[in-house]
Amino acid sequence: MMSVPSKILVVFFLLLLVSATKTVFAQGDDKEGSVSAIITPHSSDGIFSSTASYTFEVKNGSDTREVGKVSYLVTTEAGKKVKADSVKVNIGRKSSESYNFEIPIDKPGFYKINFMVNVSDYDDTTRKAFGIKPEQIRSQYAKPTDFDAFWQNTRKELDNVPPEFKMTELVDSNKNGHRVFLVEMKSLGGFTIRGYLTEPIVKNKNRKFVVLLGLPGYQVALGPMMGSDPDIAMFTLNIRGSGNSKDVINVRRDSYILLNLEDKNKYILRGAIMDCIRAVDFIYSRPELRHENIIVAGGSLGGYLTVALSSLDKRINFCSAANPILSDVRNMEHEVDWPINDIHKYVNTRPGLTMDKVYNNLDYFDAKNFATNLTCPTLVGLGLVDNIAPPDHVYVLYNNITKVPKHIIIFRDLAHEIGKKYNIYEGRWMRDQFAMF
């Protein structure tokens, strides 16, 4: 049964930092009398070993000959020109021509490529991306020597906060054979955080449920979520400052990720990650939940939190992170607008604060640095044209996972989103991992 991944995780991954949007491609229609262009990569996922290979087909549906050229431009993720080429074309009326491009690239990494067609009555650009030997991508920046000690001390600080777990059944929300509970608890700094637990209604009072812990995207309010699988309970968490956990922290969307950025001991994500660990504490407090079968899943910021939580808390048994943000942060300059542009603006308003100081703090929150300590099976998803979690940054994270079984699924034509294939694979792997036959 694939009900949980297909019906529930789809929701998690759509609740991303921004509304998921696909790159607009110039691949035209075949209307009578029109000119159109179709780009066909010679790789299903856009990954090549050394030479990127494409077929560029131009269809001339008009009654006149089309003369001009087709060309391509390859750049790095940061926009630096790498290669370019063009071919003169002369396409007869009501006909089509195909042009094969072989693009040798030496350096492992991800590249943007624009295909242009410029003929008598038609000009357009198709934007795509490809990867060359991504398994060799590494960051030149190491994690801080006291990274593990920093988080061990933070965890001790959380352990000194009595959780004061409280469950309240939301009778009016019970439906589809599920009971819904509002969950409240105290986390780092005494902050109250909340979430929702949904459990299937079963006759066997001794039944124990696998747990799916869903973590939110950036400033996303998660509500109760229900599947149709009687073996699985779902716990959706709203970290501090999100959803129904805004008692103390209730700021503008753009300001959230900047809160106390100048102090790693007060930075918002320090508390948010501890909120996720407290959620696992809650799961362990419940006798009806299977403590040895916990999967954590999320997309965008939720994907980031998933990696951080699974790294710090060995009680997680399966990690599923789609489009995780904030990986290899020091290399984000000139590759992404968010959050780098906002961080620069923030620094400019704080006398004495510099980008170097900010990066020194963010090193303790970089997803790639958490990835080195993952000890549970991990699934990662990425979109090849993602400009929020660029594929080279996600791959740095992925390549830092060295101790456990892992798998990555690449969506060649998607941006900050993943497709159904991810959900299906995740569901099968989860059921195999947890012996849910």
How would you describe the overall organization of this protein?
With 437 residues, the chain is an alpha/beta fold. The chain has nine helices and 17 strands. The protein has helices at residues 3-14, 147-159, 268-285, 301-312, 340-348, 355-362, 367-371, 391-399, 420-433, and strands at 35-41, 47-48, 51-60, 66-76, 81-91, 95-104, 109-119, 122-132, 166-169, 178-186, 192-200, 209-214, 232-238, 289-299, 318-322, 378-383, 406-411. It has a nine-stranded mixed β-sheet, with helices on both faces. A hairpin with an 8-residue loop joins strand 9 and strand 10. It is globular, with a radius of gyration of 24 Å.
- Given as residue ranges, the uncertain stretches (5+ residues, pLDDT < 50) are 1-31
From the spread of the alpha carbons, the general shape counts as globular
- Mean residue pLDDT: 92
Tally of helical runs: 9
Structural class by sheet pairing and helices:
alpha/beta
Order of helices and strands: HEEEEEEEEHEEEEEHEHEHHHEHEH
Largest sheet composition: 9 strands, mixed
**Overall number of strands:** 17
What amount of the residues lies in strands?
25-35%
Strand order of the largest sheet: 9-10-11-13-12-14-15-16-17
Distance between the termini: 9 Å
Could you tell me the radius of gyration in angstroms? 24 Å
Percent in helix:
10-25%
